[in-house]
Design goal:
The complex is a heterodimer of chains A (about 400) and B (about 375). Chain A is mainly alpha-helical. In chain A, about 45% of the residues lie in helices and about 10% in strands. In chain A, α8 runs antiparallel to α13. Classes of the chains: A mainly alpha (about 400), B mainly alpha (about 375). The interface between A and B is medium-sized, with 33 and 28 residues.
Chain lengths: ~400, ~375
């Protein structure tokens, strides 16, 4: 295609300067002079989430996507430096409140590493159940967002309704729908009774049955396949190069899952498969997560079946009433001091590898520094690269296929 | 003075005689009408309202009927989508009736909202186009007859109506141009692309039916449909149905106004009652195309006669069939995701165009066979 440059004097609107956007003036002027068109999408846009995407398009094809994240940044790491270790648990699940099991788990395991706390078997199992339930919930949430980005409103409503099962289970176990803060150093807050376990089993059956219906209406829908197939392809090499993590890395054919590589909690005791895709396109990224929901359901069933009897709190933490921490919180955790050093854990959260690194000075009851690397931030680069060369309408499809979640990325 | 009075009365009588010649005959309200016709001046007004062209354009299936149909179809669409999606749908406004007046309440809310005209817009055209876009909506109603009533009676009514309906996208593109905003621009370009993709198969599908009946006169077309047109030429109906979906921006082809991609495209800058008006535009188009498809494919106003309704009965048959067709179209919203622009262009210029060509051949075959 032959391109014609218009040699007319152009001045980009003044708003570009007052917006404080991360693009130089020359970029805009250059785009204005050539055939290109710069579109500002977000942060108040139906398909951008809490961030701005500066898209340079040539005709209908995306040349470059420059993200402008940080609209939901809460300075989590700084806040953590002024709080007790135990107070940081509710803080650190804020990046992704629907996936609180995994976010609690990573932080609490770092503390347990530091203090050499032995966690009872039963508590390990309950923690794993929470983590996997959070994974199912998050994958359903992301499926809903993907569906609405493709304009499929039924595909948006159904997963949100299905997530109610997960939320209901959370209510029965932890007492809240989201933000459970249930995992504490040394175990979990309180025990789960047999009635609740039975309910979880039945709810999972109902969930599985309805996911099959969802498969008919959205996953196997010809329009969905048309929109996602061969869109936003990341090859194996690219996915590794841009540091994509989690299900999106596995969709490109890389076999990496922290749960398999460095097993923690009860993942070694149960039988499950790592879900691997091949094509690395949007549809594979979606299917990998759909398969993971099935895997998680199986894992929870096994965990409930093999759930050992016993206490749910370590004797290192509390000497009496080892099935319920309520009433003993202050004496158990208020004076917790970590020995000097740096403690790092890797966790496989729903959207990918989650890193917590606690640095302690060995004498204060608050952390000296906490570093948290969330999967959302890590795969932002992969998402931007996957958009290149696709059509403008594909931006939202690729966005949805990555399940990008700005609060998680901005922390 | 006496001269003037007599002149006025002669003039009124003239006017009255024009109206009375073509008054709609409804036995149900005849006693009232006869009573009113005895009163001077009032008789002119009554005769004017019941004059077939005016009744057709203003009452049923015209402006009033269309407004009611749109209010109903918006409510129905939201309710049926909600049922599919395990929700309840609109309910809070007028709980006792199940939220029937939700669409009306939304319209009232729009009426009290501020209409913002942004600095970059070409204010004159920006405000003008939503209002004059009613022209290509209401004028086709003059040409599409409803059995008992009709606006302009010629044998070329269907081509004339098609020509006027085809003007609607021009107004949408113009609105996007007057908005002078990036998303509006992208949306307008998409609308223009889609317009060319569906218009030719759409016209071919209608031409196929005209060839099948060997006349463009709707009265003859309806009279000839002892077998439904959709059965005689299902391919033409399929092509017509898909092009109706594209033309009215229903969901698999909701591309020009994709709210997640271009935030309602050409309508992005509109607010208040003007937004309400432009959002009705695709629905109004759907109403017109549904009426056309009922005439071409579903036997138009054919149905058992009801003596008490007289001329109104066929109008009501057409109206009900139109609403049923609109209900079927509105189901697509809860089933499909949105196609990409290039995919729907490929569909329009490829599959649908071929379908309409095949339909043309089928119609030609029928026509040749029926003539023998």
């Amino acid at each position: 295609m032959k391109t014609y440059t218009l040699d007319v004097p152009v001045t980009p609107p003044k708003e570009y300067e007052s917006y404080f956007v991360p693009v130089p003036k020359e970029f805009l002027e250059d785009a204005y002079r050539s055939d290109d068109f710069v579109v500002f999408t977000g942060p108040q846009h139906g398909g951008s989430g809490h961030m701005r995407l500066i898209i340079r398009v040539k005709g209908d094809f995306i040349v470059e996507v420059i993200p402008d994240p940080g609209y939901v940044h809460r300075s989590m790491e700084k806040i953590a430096e002024n709080r007790l270790y135990i107070q940081n648990i509710p803080l650190f699940e804020r990046p992704s409140i629907i996936d609180f099991g995994n976010y609690n788990l990573g932080y609490v395991r770092a503390i347990e590493d530091a203090l050499d706390i032995d966690v009872p078997e039963r508590a390990r199992y309950i923690r794993t159940i929470l983590a996997e339930l959070g994974r199912i919930g998050t994958h359903l949430y992301d499926a809903g967002i993907l569906a609405v980005f493709l304009g499929h409103t039924t595909g948006f409503m159904w997963p949100f309704a299905l997530r109610e099962y997960i939320v209901e289970i959370f209510t029965r176990i932890t007492g809240t729908r989201i933000t459970g803060s249930f995992i504490v150093p040394g175990g979990v807050r309180r025990d789960v009774d047999a009635k609740t376990l039975d309910m979880i089993k039945r709810m999972l059956d109902a969930l599985e049955f309805r996911i099959k219906k969802f498969e008919r209406v959205f996953i196997k829908n010809p329009t969905t396949i048309a929109r996602l197939h061969e869109v936003g392809v990341l090859t194996k090499e690219e996915a590794v190069k841009y540091g994509v993590v989690g299900p999106f890395l596995r969709a490109s054919g890389v076999e990496y899952d922290v749960r398999k590589v460095e097993p923690y909690e009860a993942y070694e005791d149960i039988d499950w498969d790592m879900v691997i895709g091949e094509d690395g396109d949007g549809y594979t990224r979606f299917l990998v997560r759909v398969e993971e929901v099935g895997q998680s359901i199986n894992m929870i069933r096994q965990l409930i079946e093999y759930l050992p009897e016993g206490e749910v709190l370590s004797s290192d933490i509390i000497a009496f009433n080892k099935n319920d921490i309520r009433g003993s919180f202050f004496e158990a955790y208020a004076d917790m001091v970590l020995p000097e050093g740096e403690y790092t854990t890797l966790t496989e959260a729903a959207r990918g590898t989650l890193l917590y690194s606690i640095i302690s000075d060995g004498e204060s009851t608050v952390p000296y520094r906490v570093r948290i690397v969330t999967p959302g931030w890590v795969y932002l680069k992969g998402f931007m690269e996957a958009c290149k060369g696709h059509r403008l309408a594909d931006l939202q499809a690729i966005y949805g296929s990555f399940g990008y979640f700005p609060p998680e990325a901005d922390r | 003075m006496a001269d003037t009075a007599s002149l006025v009365s002669i003039l009124l009588d003239r006017i009255l005689s024009i109206f009375v010649d073509e008054m709609i005959n409804i036995p149900l309200i005849n006693p009232i009408v006869e009573r009113l016709m005895e009163i001077p001046f009032v008789n002119v007004i009554v005769a004017f309202i019941l004059w077939k062209p005016i009744f057709h354009v203003l009452i049923l299936p015209g402006l009033l009927g269309m407004t009611l149909a749109l209010l109903f179809i918006i409510y129905f669409e939201r309710k049926i989508t909600a049922r599919v999606q395990w929700r309840v749908g609109p309910k809070e406004v007028s709980r006792r009736t199940g939220g029937v007046i939700q669409a009306l309440a939304d319209g009232m809310r729009y009426l009290f909202q501020e209409v913002i005209v942004h600095r970059d817009a070409n204010a004159f055209y920006f405000l003008q186009f939503p209002l004059i876009s009613f022209l290509p909506v209401l004028l086709p109603l003059m040409f599409i007859p409803a059995g008992g009533t009709y606006g302009i009676k010629t044998i070329y009514t269907i081509p004339a109506a098609l020509a006027l309906i085809s003007l609607i996208p021009v107004f949408i593109v113009a609105m996007g141009w007057a908005s002078n905003s990036k998303f509006a621009y992208i949306g307008s370009v998409r609308e223009a692309f889609m317009y060319f993709a569906y218009e030719i198969p759409f016209l071919l599908a209608v031409v196929a039916m005209i060839v099948l009946y060997q006349t463009p006169d709707p009265f003859e077309i309806v009279a000839k449909q002892w077998i439904l047109g959709a059965v005689m030429n299902p391919i033409a109906f399929l092509a017509f149905f898909i092009t109706v979906l594209i033309a009215t921006s229903r969901l698999p082809f909701d591309i020009p106004e994709a709210d997640q991609e271009v935030a309602f495209g050409p309508y992005v800058e509109y607010s208040g009652i003007i937004f309400g008006l432009v959002m009705m535009l695709p629905y109004e188009k759907l109403y017109l195309l549904s009426m056309l498809s009922v005439i071409l494919f579903f036997g138009g106003w054919n149905g058992p006669e009801i003596a008490i309704l007289g001329d109104l009965a066929p109008v009501i048959y057409l109206y009900i069939k139109t609403i049923l067709f609109m209900c079927v179209v509105s189901l697509a919203r809860s089933i499909y995701a949105r196609y990409r622009l290039d995919q729907s262009l490929r569909l329009g210029w490829g599959v649908v165009l071929s379908l309409s060509m095949i339909a043309l051949f089928i119609s030609a075959g029928w026509a040749a066979w029926l003539r023998l």
